Amino acid sequence: MQSTRFVPDRGLTTRMAGTMFLIGLLYVVFVGVLVALLRGAWPLILLVAGGMFVAQFWFGDRIAAFAMGAREVTPEQEPELHGAVDRLCALADMPKPRVAVADSDVPNAFATGRDRRNALVCATTGLLRRLEPEELEGVLAHELSHVAHRDVAVMTVASFLGVLAGIMTRAGLWGGLRRVGDRDSNTAVLVVLIPLVSALVYAISFLLTRMLSRYRELSADRAAALLTGRPSALASALTKISGEMARIPTRDLRQAEPFNAFYFAPALSGEGLNRLLSSHPTLEQRLDQLGRISARLGLA
Predict the structure, then answer these.
(1) In whole angstroms, what is the distance from residue 29 CA to residue 141 CA?
(2) Residue 142 marked as a ligand binder
(3) Cα angle, residue 108 at apex, residues 288 and 54 outer, rounded to 5°
(4) Where do the annotations place Zn(2+) binding (predicted)?
(5) Distance CA 141, CA 144 (A)
């Protein structure tokens, strides 16, 4: 597929390939362990694993968009939003994605899609109400860079594999233990061992996706700032959104928190250990990078 004018990021490409390889290897081993431990249930295990992976690859973007309340809008309904996306896509020389709005006061944006032809970019009503046009373009350029770099598709698949570990374990236990029942003296051991293995697989895949997520957000900030030539506008949007988050009711932030890995800014950010598990770099890290880009462009 043709490239765009977004600055390529070899570090991101390497990290995406490494993350998918390690997670793929992890799941090959995981499925092998389940098949070995639950010999009578291997057809069910492979069927669940294959079916869920294919479903996630083809429908994961739609599921994510629906879960986050995105509704596609026309240029007549949201002329400012469509106009900004049109300008950025022309500047980046990339196909225009579908454009959507989510009815939420939490100021945020996200992109989904397994490739550029099936991409969707969404902004919340809270974001549209609070940002100036230049700030909005900075945020949208950030989201479009996720589509251009294809990391949004990698994150969609990689994030799902952790959930798949739990589904496969339950399916394997249900199918395998039904066959061995009380006649097998190892049943009690399997009931304890398999959930532990599943939890370990989930933890490793979670840490891998979090490390990739933090890097990809910095990469998207950098690509957006260089494409628009206005890193200060993106920095202003980041500062404004972070400040506005403190005014949003905690209940609303909690509802948005499960989708942090997809959002432009985290609904809730942590301190200490939680920061190590965060899907995003800190605000200070993002602003510092944008400041350095401004200096390099001679804008500061």
Answers:
(1) 39
(2) yes
(3) 105
(4) 142, 146, 217
(5) 5
- The model's pLDDT over 59-112, given as tens digits with 9 standing for 90+, comes to 766 777 777 888 999 999 999 999 999 999 999 999 999 999 999 999 999 998
Domain boundaries along the sequence of the chain: 10-296
- The reported pTM is 0.83
Does the annotation list 217 as a binding residue? Answer: yes
Q: In a 10 Å sphere around its CB, with 0-12 CB exposed, 13-18 middle and 19+ buried, how is residue 67 labelled?
A: exposed
Largest CA distance in the chain: 76
Q: Which residues are catalytic?
A: 143
> Annotation-wise, does 146 bind a ligand?
yes
Residue 1 pLDDT: 42
Q: What letter would DSSP give residue 279?
A: S
Provide the H-helix boundaries in the chain. Answer: 10-37, 42-67, 79-92, 125-130, 133-149, 151-180, 187-228, 231-245, 250-256, 273-276, 283-296
